[in-house]
Amino acid sequence: MSKINSSRRKFLKTGTILTGGAMLSGLPLAQAAQSLVDDTIKIALVGCGGRGTGAAVQALLTKQNVKLVAMADAFRSKIDEAYKNITADDLQDIIGVEGSVKSRVDVPEDRKFVGFDAYKKAIALADVVILTTPPGFRPAHFEEAVKRGKQIFMEKPVAVDGPGIRKVLAAAEEAKRKKLNVVVGLQRHYQNVYRQWIDRLQNGAIGEIITSRVYWNMGALWIHPRKKGQTEMEYQMDNWYYFNWLCGDHIVEQHVHNLDVSNWAKQAYPVKAYGSGGRQVRIGPETGEIFDHHTVEFEYADGTRMFSQCRQIPGTKDSVTEGFHGTKGTAPSPGLILKKGKEIMNYQSKNDPNPYQVEHDELFAAIAKGEYKFADAENAAKSTLTAIMGRMATYSGQIVDWNTALNSQVNLMPEMLDWNANPRVLPGPDGIYPCAVPGVFKVM
Asked: Which of 310, 380, 356 has its CA nearest to residue 159?
């Protein structure tokens, strides 16, 4: 244990102080000195919604000496709810785990930060930051965490537009230079069945992959009714899933998981996309501007195709899966591979550990040992860009190529982040938000 603690102290020191003093630059001298001798791994949670609460609990369930020391969110109510849940006497109703982690929580009132700039204050106080706000904020938050030399867990997707992707890619390179571990919540990469399945595919179990099929089809999600007195910014933030500057549309926020699996198996990213989509049931003022279905054909540089579907319409068939066709066989679902009609792999994953927990177990184990093992940000940015390219294709009805998506100058973020400022998309006199019209929508 003393060797592990020594390695961790050395790792945190070289990964932060020796890369420009980023980690300690925002700390008082006494606190900075303490961070070099205290074996506690200090965690800050930025984004206190449901996913942030779950991620924080999973970090606190790891075997290392960890402590949650700061929380930040634009809404005070989110912090209060998350704090209550994280410090519950039994986590069974929170994430389905018996027991409590409240002894690992030390977040007094003066370390609960509220507002659009709250993330900077929380990040400054920690060794590891958990970034789980709506995706539109991810590029700025990731950039700040890297600048300050922090180890990072951040949720997917990592951006919602081309400018955001470019910012994440630049910060990812800086994180590599500083040897900062970055784990991204594309949790299939931390799931045993997928790890073994993709390994077999990459090693030729079905020959050359010529087609992939990826799906996230499901029913509707939550809606928060407009509250009396809410500003437009407050309303859109509260209903972040339905606005592109916050969510990126569900092809980006959710379907990125499936698109990423295809990219992982192919060890490549598509060069162009062509598809269609629209709003069949999301036609009221409460459903913002996003589509409820997308169907996209992606093309890789070698000419192979990925066929993609994502849908959020009540009463329709659910399907959340991926499948591959190769020159020598098929892999119709995770863990199953057929060759010439004969089953050659049928992985049973009932007793596998929860991949959401494994993400944190492996990240914090590496940090405690002073190891640099994880650099997920670049792949996450490119898989996110795959989804953004698909959205641009369905919104416009045009073929959109990789460079067009990456170099797009369309910035979806509001000009000013303030509760009384207006986002770029506003409702019309009838309360309906304008949405993309294929054939009219411009991608650049």
From this structure: 380
What residues contact 59, with CB distance under 8 A and at least 6 apart?
43, 66, 68, 128, 130, 153, 360, 364
Q: Tens digit of pLDDT for each residue in 148-173?
A: 999 999 999 999 999 999 999 999 99
Return the structure tokens found at 6.
Answer: 């020594």
Token pair 């019309």 is found at 428
Comparing C-alpha atoms, which of 201, 400, 213, 402 is closest to residue 306? 213
In angstroms, rounded to a whole number, what is the distance separating the alpha carbons of residues 370 and 8? 4
Q: How confident is the model at residue 350 (pLDDT cuts 50, 70, 90)?
A: confident
CA 220, 226, 232, 238 dihedral sign is negative
In whole angstroms, what is the distance from residue 138 CA to residue 403 CA?
A: 22
- Structure token digits, residue 362: 């492996």
Angle at 123 between CA 117 and CA 129, to 5 degrees: 125
pLDDT at 33 over 70: no
Could you write out the three-class secondary structure of 386-428?
HHHHHHHHHHHCCCEEHHHHHHCCCCCCCCCCCCCCCCCCCCC
- Per-domain residue ranges of the chain: 2-188+356-376
CA nearest to 178, candidates 323, 349, 22, 25: 22
Nearest by Cα to 59 from 92, 95, 16: 95
Q: How many Å apart are CA 249 and CA 340, to the nearest integer?
A: 39
Cα dihedral value 21, 24, 28, 30, nearest 10: -100
Nearest to 377 by CA among 84, 69, 166, 102: 166
The pTM of this model reads 0.92
Question: CB within 8 A of 439, min separation 6: which ones?
Answer: 396, 397
What does the alpha-carbon distance between residue 56 and residue 67 come to, in Å, rounded to a whole number?
A: 10
CATH architecture of 2-188+356-376: 3-Layer(aba) Sandwich (3.40)
Distances (CA, A) of 416 to 229, 233, 249, 355, 425: 20, 10, 21, 37, 13
Inter-residue contact 151 to 128 (CB < 8 Å): yes
